Amino acid sequence: MHAMRAFVVVCTAHALIAPPVRLRERTAPRATSGDYLAGLGQSTIEEVDAVVIGCGPAGLAAAVELKRRGFDRVVALERREAPDEFEVAKAYLYLVDRRGQRWTDAVGATDGIRARGVSNEGFSLTRIYPDEKGIFPTKPVLARPGAAQAVWIPRASLLAALAERAAHDGADLRFGVSVDGLRAADDGAVDIACGATTLRTPLVVGADGARSRVRDFLAKELPASSFEPRELASPSAGLTYKMLQVPPSFDVTNKTDGSSFTTRSRDAYTVPSRSTKPNTRRLRLGLLPSRDPELPRTANIIRPANHEIWGCATGAEVREFLRSEFPQLPDAVVSDEACEAFAIAEPGAFPSPQYVETVAATVGAARCFLVGDAIHAFPPDLGQGVNAALEDVKTLGDVLDDQNAVAAYQAARAPAAKAIAHLVQRGFPYQYDQSVWRQRLFTVGLVGRVAANALAAKLLPEKIAKRVAPPPAAFSVIDGEDYVGVWKHIKRATRATAALAVAVLARAVI
Length: 510
Known about the structure:
Protein name: FAD-binding domain-containing protein
Cofactor: FAD
Mean pLDDT: 86
InterPro entries: FAD-bd, FAD/NAD-bd_sf
Number of strands: 26
Radius of gyration: 24 Å
CATH class of the largest domain: Alpha Beta
GO molecular function, one term: FAD binding
Low-confidence stretches: 1-37
CATH superfamily of the largest domain: FAD/NAD(P)-binding domain
Strand order of the largest sheet: 10-4-3-14-25-24
Keywords: FAD, Flavoprotein, Monooxygenase, NADP, Oxidoreductase
Strand content: 15-25%
Number of domains: 3
Distance between the termini: 15 Å
Largest sheet: 6 strands, mixed
Shape: globular
Number of helices: 15
């Protein structure tokens, strides 16, 4: 009985510390239709079969998919000058897992991505401490067997691979082009103004991010639909990040014995700071696997907005902070130029988990689809941003030949967008050292769910075990399971756990 009560307390604690699921409307200002239409003056009309706005992973994948599905004149627009442009604020790595590879397998792009990335198979993490703890490898909490064939690849490398494939297939990729506005054309198509040219098309794919212009255009044209993002609270939302550039391989000092240790670009490392108590100096550098020796490697720095590192206004101040907090790193690991670039770079911030309820619509006779961050955006807690986007694209391709493609895409991806936002909210939000005690309590709850799932799997049939005690949401998502199904299992189990906890506590009081 005591063991049962302990288990109930653990699972209840896990449920209690999970962030609330209350929704709130995003209040970010929206550009007016007048701003959008300003660019739609006298210009050359160019009629095309499809236009993709945005050439991130979702947009480039959509261009490939449209060509694969038989669309002839496919144009993809991007304001950046090149697909593989190195951006300090976006120099992160993607983990293309089983979910994302369902699309890359379908189009024959997986081998090319593997050639530019590092396999997650046998993935280990080496900790490099600033004291006598020294250097030792450890197994990451979320290193799942289901993700063994996943591939770590820098954003720039993935974009370059997808751009090469899209261009090879005949898509017209136009970089350095800004979209000035969208409007419904008289013939039922959509006009997209971009400089001196207006593209007229019967099919638009909005892959232009969390502040999507395509989505705002649809909201203006279809005010009865729900295109406003709905946000969820999350402990990782709002965390600020920058990337610190380091060499692909470098030497560090093992503080246990003073020996030198050489890192390898294909391995992952975490480098804790000298400060260990929760304060505004405690820090941790994270380096993920990278294959391309020509690309600069980056160390992720993710901290709250009040952290002292963000107050370093010059390269010299960054250098002094690093020197003080990371004695295991020689000065040469981070160049003066990298320190200065870090100081002047604008930090990014993790968004709240969010989704939109309408992900496709018809304007006149034109079909409009949203993919990627335009319909679901969230912190990188589970590494699902790129994988959810590629799943969007695969679904889009699968339904395009359907007479009711808009309705079919809406039915498939709107529930998925909502589910993944909720799953990220609860999946693994305390991995950034925001709160030591909450992180520990969350871990205890995670272990409780793993133990309950293992016990249920031994005693019950698989389907029933998943209903009664499913594995943690993070595990199921990383294993490639359906977002909607995982979310249903988690909700059902949480309700059952809460009911059991109330029953046991009531009996204890009586």
